[in-house]
Every structure is written in C-alpha cells, then in structure tokens.
Amino acid sequence: MLKQYFPILVWGKNYGRASLTNDLIAAIVVTLMLIPQSLAYAMLAGLPPQVGLYASMLPLIAYTIFGTSRTLAVGPVASGSLMTAVAVGNIAAQGSFDYYLAAISLAFISGLILVVMGFFRMGFLANFLSHPVISGFVIASGILIAAGQLKHILGVRGSGQNLIEISLGLIPQLGKISQPTLLVGVAVICYLVLMRMHLKSLLLRLGVNPRVAGIMLKSSPVLAVVITTLVSWRYSLDAIGVRIVGSIASGLPPFTMPSFDPDLWRSLAGSALLISVIGFVESVSVAQTLAAKRRQRIIPDQEMIALGTANIASALSGGFPVNGGFARSVVNFEAGAETPAAGAFTAIGITAAIIFLTPILFFLPQATLAATIIVAVLSLIDPGVIKRTWIYSKSDFAAMLATIMLTLLEGIVTGILSGVALSLLIHLYRTSRPHFAIVGQVPGTEHFRNILRHKVVTSLTVLNLRVDESLYFPNARFLEDTVQNLVAQNPAIRHVVLMCAAVNSIDASGLESLEAINARLRDSDVKLHCSEIKGPVMDQLQRSHFLEELTGKVFLSQYEAFAALDPQAAKMAMEQRHSHQIAGN
Amino acid sequence: MLKQYFPILVWGKNYGRASLTNDLIAAIVVTLMLIPQSLAYAMLAGLPPQVGLYASMLPLIAYTIFGTSRTLAVGPVASGSLMTAVAVGNIAAQGSFDYYLAAISLAFISGLILVVMGFFRMGFLANFLSHPVISGFVIASGILIAAGQLKHILGVRGSGQNLIEISLGLIPQLGKISQPTLLVGVAVICYLVLMRMHLKSLLLRLGVNPRVAGIMLKSSPVLAVVITTLVSWRYSLDAIGVRIVGSIASGLPPFTMPSFDPDLWRSLAGSALLISVIGFVESVSVAQTLAAKRRQRIIPDQEMIALGTANIASALSGGFPVNGGFARSVVNFEAGAETPAAGAFTAIGITAAIIFLTPILFFLPQATLAATIIVAVLSLIDPGVIKRTWIYSKSDFAAMLATIMLTLLEGIVTGILSGVALSLLIHLYRTSRPHFAIVGQVPGTEHFRNILRHKVVTSLTVLNLRVDESLYFPNARFLEDTVQNLVAQNPAIRHVVLMCAAVNSIDASGLESLEAINARLRDSDVKLHCSEIKGPVMDQLQRSHFLEELTGKVFLSQYEAFAALDPQAAKMAMEQRHSHQIAGN
Question: Of A291, B208, B316, B404, which residue is the least packed, with the fewest Cβ within 10 Å?
Fold first, then answer.
C-alpha cells in the first residue's frame, strides 16, 4: 500500500554504486540543458528568469519520491508556460505581484487537481484528448509560441493571445526594430538550426558514439548562451538596445504560499484543469515510450499523483506549473539515467547554478532565449502528421483542423475543447449508423465472413447477420429497420441469426429493439437466433426476459447455429475444403 | 422519385371498394374518439376548444398524402399539448391573441424543422432519445399533466410549469373547491377507470368480438361526454360553479398565417425542435409496431416529411402542433383501417362535428375533459418499466431517474436534455474502459472464447487477446497499458494475437496505439499479429503504414492464427472433439 504511493521505496531499496554513477552523469547533462530552458520558459510565461530555476528544483525532488517512470525529467515546458501566460494574463498585468501570485496559485491548483484525479483513478479522462487533437494542439501552440517570441527577436514590444492579435500587435512596431537584437536572434537561430541539421552526422563521422552525439546536440543551446553572453558583456550590447536578462535573484527559492481567494480559484480552475490534463498526457506518452524500451512499467494514476505533488512543490517554492518534458527526458534516458534519483541530482545541479551562475547570466540577451524557444517549438511541429491523418481518416482530420484553426484564432482552451467535442460527435454519428454485414461460411472453415467481400456459402432460409456495433440507443432503431427490410426483401427466410461477436454491450434501448425485432419476426413466422454472445452481454441479458421470449436459440458460435439451422449448407461448405485440399495436395 | 415523396401514388393506384368500406368504418370510430380528445388537448395547451378540432382536420389530409404508415392516426396529443403550453406560456399570457399566434407559429416551425430534417435524412437524430429517457419523459410528463389538470377537477384556479409550482399554486386554493365540479370530475374518473378495468372482460363474456370490445373501450369517453353534457344542460350546472366549455366557434377552420417575427422564432426554436423530435419518435414507434403486424414497411425519413407537412397544415388552418397518437392509431388499426385514406375520412367526420355538434357541446363541463386527460396520461405510466430498467442496467436507470426528476422539478426541456447528456456520458465512460478477454480454443471447434468462462485450450507462447471495443481515442491508451502489463507478466510469450472481431473501427488515436504496441513488443522480441479484421477496418488500415510495420501477420480467423503459431496446441484442441465424440457415441 505504502509502496504503491511511494515508488521510491521500491527502487531505493536496491540503489547501488553503479546506479549512482549513471544517475550522476545523466544529472550533469540534464542540468546543462535545463538552465537555458528554465530561463526561456519563465520568460515565455511572463515571469522573472529565476522563477524558471525555482520550478526546476523542489518539483524534481517531489517527482523522485512519487514518480513511477525511471527517466521522466520534470520541469517547466513550452506548452505549460504558454498556457500559464494566457491564464494569468487574463487576471493581472505582467510584472505585477498579482501576476506572480496567480502563477503560483495556478501551479498549486493544477497540482491539487492532479493529486485528486490520481487518487480517484481518473487518469482515463486524459484519454479524451485524442491523438489528432493533441497533434493539432502541438502544431498550433508551436506556431503561437514562435509568433509570440518574434518580439524578442525583433527587439520591439508586442502582446496578444491569438495569432491575429499577435500579428496586429507587431505590424505597427516594424519601424522600431532593433538591428543589433535582430542580429543576435537570427545568429542564434541559424546556429541552432545548423546544429540540428548537421552536428549529429558530423560527430558520427568523427567517430563519436551516437548516444553521446545525441546528447551533445541537445546541449548545443548552452554554447549559444555562453557565447552571446560573452559578446553582450564584452561589447555592452545593452547600451545599443539589446535587451538582456539583467539581475537574477540568486540564492535558494523562497517559501511561497498560493492565494486562497475563491474568486481567483474560480477564474483559474478551467485553465488549471487543462494544464493538468495536457501536461499529464504529454508526460505519460514520453514516460510510456521510454519505459517500454527497457520493459519497465509506469502506472498512469500514480503518475498523476507524482506530477501533482511536483506542481504543489513548485507552488510552495516560488515556481510555476511544471510537467515532464519530451526532449529533456530523452536526454536523461540516453545519458544513462537509471532511477528517478537522477532528477534529485539535477535539482542539486540547478541549485548550484542559481547560487554561482546568476551573476554571470546578467548579460545574457533575451533574444538568445527567444531563439532557443522558437527552434525548440518549431522542431516539434511535424507537417507529415497532417497529411497522414488526412489519408487515414477524414473525420480525424476534421478534428485536427478544428483544433489547429480554433487554437490559432480563438486561443488554446477553445481550440482544444472544440476538438474534443468534435471528436465525440463524430464518434457518436458513426456508431449511430453502424456497419452490418450478411455473412456466409468460408469454405472449409467454421469462419463466417461478409458475402460481399468473400467467397462464402449461404443459405436461402437462414439469414446470417453480423452487427458491427454495440447495441445502444443511437443505433437501436437502425437495427430494427435493417432486419425488417432484409426480411421483407427475402420472403424465403425462416431463420435470422444475429452474430453478436462485435456486440460489446446492449443497453435498455438496444434490448427494447431486440424484443421488438423478436416480436415482429414472430408475427411473420421467422425465428430469431443469436450466436457468439459474449459473457458480459449474456450476464446482462439474463437479467431481462429476452432470452425466455426469444423464438429461437442462443448458439455458442455462428458455425454451430448454421450447422443446426441448415445442416446441408454447412456440410457442403465444410466439404469444399476437402475437395480444395485434395486439389492442393 | 415522385412516389418516394408522395406515397399516396403507391397505395392510391389500387384503391378499391373493399378498402373504402374498411377505411370508412375505421374513420367513424376514430372520429368518435377524437372529438373529446381534441377538445381536451386544446384545453391542456391553453387554447380555445375549437383549435383542437382545427388541428384534427387539415393535418390528417396532409398525412394521407405524405405518410408511409397505413394506420397512423395524426392529431393533437397529450405530450405535444403540454409542451406547447410550456413553450408558448413563456412568451404570452394564456387567452391573448399573441398566445394563439405563438402556438400556430410553434406548429409551423416544428413542421419546417421536420420537413428539413426528413429531406436531409436526419431521422437518425431521433435515436439519441434513448428508451430510458423516453420512458422517464412519459412518466414525468404524465404526472405533470395530471397534476396540471387537478385545478379543473377541483374547480379552482392554478398555474405552474413544474410539480413544485403546481403544488404551491393549488394549496392556497384548497378552501375554494367547487363541490359540484369535484363531483362531476370524480364521477367521470371513476367511470373511465371502471371501464378500463372491467368493460373489456364484460363484453368478452357477453360474446362480443375482442376487436370490437377493444374499440368500444377506447370509445367509452364519448359516453361520459354525452351524459355529463346532458346533466350539465338539464340542471344548469354552470349556475352552481361548474365551468363549462361554452361557445365553440363553429364552421370550417380559418386560414391562418404564423408570425415571422425573428425574436419569436428564436425563442420558440428550442421547444419546436424538441416537440418535433419527441413527436417523431412517438409516431415512428407506433407506426413501426403496427406496420410489422401486417409485414408492411414505413420509411422514417419520409415520416418526418409527412409529420412536418401535417404540422405546417395545422399552422395554416388555425391549429397547433400535432403528431401520431398511440391509442388513436391502435383503434384505427383495430377498426380495420387499410390505407391513410381513413385519416382523410376522419378529417371529414371532424368537419361534420364542428359544423353540427359545437352548439351541443356548449354545456360540456371542463371537468369531464380534465378527467379524460388524467385517466389517459396516467394509463400510459408503467411503473414496471422503472423496475425492469433498474434490474437490467443501473446506468440506464440513472438516465431514466435523472429525466424523471429533472422533468418534474425543472421542466420538460431540462429533463430530456439532461437525460440525453447523461446517457451519452455513460456510454463514453463505458467505452473508455473496454472489456478485454484472453481467449482459448473451445475443444473440437475453431471457436475461441474467454479462458475465465469456458474450458478452452491455450498456449504458453501465444497470447490470444480479444479486444471488446472499437479502438478509438477514449480507450486507445487503455489497450497499450493492457498489452504491456500482460506481456510483462508472462515472460514466455513470443506472439500476441489481437482478435479484432469486435473492433468496428480504428481511429487515428487507435492506430497510434497499435503502432506503439507493435514497436514496444518488437523491442521485447514479441511478434504482434491480428486476426478477424473486418473489411471496413482493413480498408482503413491499408491507408496507413501499420500493416507494413506489423512484426507478425494478419490472419483471416483466430483459429488460423493459432494453428499457424502453435500448431500442437491447436491440433490437441481439435482432437479433444474426436475423443469427446467417441465417448459420446
């Protein structure tokens, strides 16, 4: 019981020297990567840079205690930071104390929601964010984030929460572009893009181990930070209009308390729920993927609790919402992290950074951070997914497109909720007009297939009907109509066999329809049979009078039904194998 | 094409003398039943009595032309009248011209909605009213209607749209009860209840044909109308406080036009949609049931058009919303109606009544009409359905209970919409945690069943997994977790076969999950196979890369998969039949 909620008790018991070494190495690599990321994402969220570092300390310790993934690396992430900026920006002015307090409270509420959901095993709710909706969200929020960072690259002021507002905000500023800032920003972007395109293959050609090459690539922003900071300090770029990070409060994170103002909670609740659920989905996907590579297991409901405590820890130590980051976790994994202890060591690394490095980062240009954000989010955008979805399923494509367009034009919350609602409506529409197939026996087997797609044996007097959906209220009447029409068209039919292999449940409306079908067929002297009814469905039917009223029988398999109702046809079908086999031999 | 929209062209061609006689007899019986019903339902809708007769003339002619049911009898019905009173009562004061105009407009808008929905084949939308929601609605609206009519039985004033308002409105009036009115009302209720309980068995014992006995029972309100009218006239009951129907405008219905005020349309649109859909569901259920008894067919989408034109006809001739009535259609059927012409003849009968009978109905006590309404709606309430639903399915019961309680306390619209929403949420929750079964071969057959419920043959190296749900976003991750856990628990497994007989569709999220499962199993040296993939699902998978990436094969049947992957186990299972058969012989 205790071990269920404290996975550290499981892996901590056998923690040894070898694991310690590996975890320490991974922690150093992740720390190097996390420092610029933390500063950048704090800027994206509209918060002072040190807040990003605060969010990379205590939350990592919390995840080490409660997390079930061995390699998930927690901290501020791009989408969460953007959502924080939007949610908090509606409540207070950026830079004010109220803005900071609201961000802390948002982390606290998100954390609370996650812990409660995890405790009550409500992780399944995250599944309602379908794959097309998440892909659409990643694409649209990537575009929004990149567009929002343009002002830092251009060295102008700007604001806005959707693409139109951001564009309209930038246009009047185009005359005021700071050319030194633009130079720094474009140089960093070019450097990062070149690294992504060529560094890995270059290193491989130089004989570097591929794993190490991957880690070096992910750490390349550190070099950009170091060089642009040095240039900015040496040539006093701030004097010619390049905005710099400035003084970062150094020292350990403060103890902070969220606000408990009910009005604030009400206005943050919706955003907090969305940040929680989206963050959870992102984290769990990464964690699952990495766990599978080592045949490990993660427990989604416990992951909710772990991410929840990480967010509460963030709120109590001056941070903002956190969750598992994709690139960061992959680096952690590839750098050899074996246990969540690597996260705790990373937290120590960040603590060292905040104490010793903050004076040095004073001259870091904001354009450098903006450039790292832009390259990071745009690299997450995979245009191929749009094409693949279009080819695979038009309805999934519709949900994705709605999510992208509405996120860009109306904001993240509207975009995601519309995508989810559309996905559900499409599903309900589809199940309300289910697929039906008249089936026949595949020669030489006991298997039954659609007469339109396979060469099968059928019978004049027995109608074998496969229903390809659970019987529930949106499609109940459809089944009635289908059976009635088929029987009206084929006067020779004496038996209808409903093959229920695809019927996973029958609700009260479905039962009513079955009873109506049974009664109507009885009036026309046709018997109704069922085959392949599954256990859970059978359990339910036994609590009604349907099985007593049924004019025909319930058969274990469709073959058994066919063999009983038209033995000649079934025998003929079976013999076709024999002749076929003899011919084949 | 023309015949599709004008079914009268089909049955009218062979219309002969025999059909004419039968239709005429049925029309006379239905007319006798319809006169008191029309007056009563107009009163229930808060409209002058003649409006009920208007609604029983032109709409019937329209249905004769467009309807596909041979025996559905159209006209004002209890639930539609109550919904009219609620919808129009929110807009204008009862008795005002605006109230009447709004009622006419409501019929027009409902008719328009039905015609458009029928034309665009949107009849499937009606299926979203599940059986428990409709049962709950019938129960709750029956109680609401009966409670609303109590004021006429007590001879007091009252108002209110939900049970609490109606009760609170009646309590202060209890001191003002009119005893002669109460006497008339209670006498009629007792008479009608006694008739329902004993008339039919009495007539049967006297040797009357059961069909005729049924028709006489349904016509028994006519006698109550005649007697109470005579008593009321002879003893001048109106002078001692018994409210009477009073003067009914006689003569043909006027030509009326609905209002085209956009504000009025906006405020009526929601109610009109609900009246249309509920009326359509009621009508189609009755029509289907009666059509099946004679192996006839009705076409739901064309029924929408027919009911729509009936409502438009009602609006143009001074009437209010109409649809197919249950009791009335059964009487029409049992009285021998053969074609929709019976409806046209009924319309002629009502026309005769409005010309010759209205002066006679002057003294008809309103309490008589209220008593017929109360007995009619309460007889529709079947308490058994509540118990049966409770036993069959707790989730359907929850939807029914929500509909009943919210209809009684918050009104019809809130009640029905909440019931529908709850039904959908329950369905989504259920499909998000689908049933999975590990299956094995049923000895002596090619059939595979759940190892927990059947004696089956399994294999150590092959995991046969049956997924009992379509793979779509709410359950995609659930499948990933399930497969991962099962494989982690059984290290001997080399092959996983997903038996897809119950997988009716795979959306983009489901595909993503399948790809993730395939990749993770490959990392653990386990092959993934699929069996019994249906045609439409296979078509879809072929538009993705999944089938190329699949480490294993796609088998036609689960048996074929098992026989290929563990031939020994499959052979052993087949031989068990032989030994069994020998033992059986």
Answer: B208
A507/B396 Cβ within 8 A: yes
In this structure, what token pair is assigned to residue A178? Answer: 């700071």
- Candidate from B131, B293, B509 with C-beta closest to A130: B509
User: CB atoms < 10 A from the CB of A486, how many?
Assistant: 15
Q: Which of A130, A475, A507 sits opposite B127 (nearest CB)?
A: A475
Nearest-angstrom CA–CA distance, B124 and B127: 5
Residues B547-572: what's their mean pLDDT? 93
Q: What is the largest CA-CA distance in chain B?
A: 97
SS3 content of chain A, % helix, strand, coil (to 5): 70, 5, 25
Please give the residue of chain B at the shortest CA–CA distance from A388.
B544
> Closest Cα to residue A542, out of B281, B391, B478?
B391
Tokens of B201: 């068995």
Q: Tell me the per-residue pLDDT of A372-424, one tens digit each, with 9 for 90 and over.
A: 888 888 887 888 889 999 999 898 999 999 999 998 998 877 888 888 889 88
Q: Are B524 and B496 in contact (CB under 8 A)?
A: no
User: Could you report the per-residue pLDDT of B512-547, keeping only the tens digit for each?
Assistant: 889 989 988 998 889 999 999 999 999 999 999 999
- Taking contacts as CB-CB distances below 8 angstroms, the residues of chain B near A130 are 472-473, 476, 507-509
- In terms of residues, how long is chain B? 585
> How many CA within 13 A on the CB side of residue B60?
34
Contact A445 B524 (CB under 8 A): no
In angstroms, the first-to-last Cα distance of chain A is 61
Q: State whether A124 and B388 contact (CB < 8 Å).
A: no
Q: Which residue has the tokens 């049970």?
A: B163
What's domain A433-584's architecture? Answer: 2-Layer Sandwich (3.30)
CB atoms within 10 A of CB B93: 10
Query: Which bin fits B81, alpha (ψ -120 to 50), beta or left (φ > 0)?
Result: alpha
d(CA B316, CA B310): 10
Interface test with A, best of B127, B302, B455, B554 (most A CBs within 10 A): B127
CB within 8 Å: A508 and B556:
no
A426: distance to nearest CA of chain B, Å? Answer: 11
Q: Which residues of B touch A292 (CB under 8 A)?
A: 484, 516, 519-520, 523-524
Q: Which among B288, B502, B508 has the least Cβ separation from residue A480?
A: B288
Indicate the domain borders of chain B: 2-425, 433-584
Residue in chain A nearest B531 by alpha carbon:
A447
Q: Which helix (H) or strand (E) holds B52?
A: helix B49-54
CA–CA distances in Å: residue A315 to residues A36, A47, A59, A224, B99: 21, 14, 9, 30, 59
- φ, ψ for residue A133, nearest 5 deg: -70, -40
pLDDT digits (tens, 9 = 90+) for B156-169: 888 777 888 888 88
- Using the CB atoms, write b or e for A387-414: b if 16+ within 10 Å: ebbeebbebbbbbbbbbbbbbbebbbbe
- For residue B217, the distance in angstroms to the closest alpha carbon of chain A comes to 25
Q: Looking at the complex, report in whole angstroms how far the Cα of residue B428 sits from the nearest Cα belonging to chain A.
A: 9
How many angstroms separate the CA of residue B499 from the nearest CA in chain A? Answer: 11
Beta-carbon-side half-sphere exposure of residue A121 (alpha carbons within 13 Å):
4
Chain-chain contact of A469 with B504 (C-beta, under 8 angstroms): yes
What average pLDDT does chain A have? 88
Beta-strand pair A448-450/A462-468: unpaired
Cα–Cα distance, A515 to A498 (Å, whole number):
13
Report CB contact under 8 Å: B523, A127: no
Neighbouring CB atoms inside 10 A of A294's CB total 12
Question: Alpha-carbon distance B234 to B213, whole Å?
Answer: 31
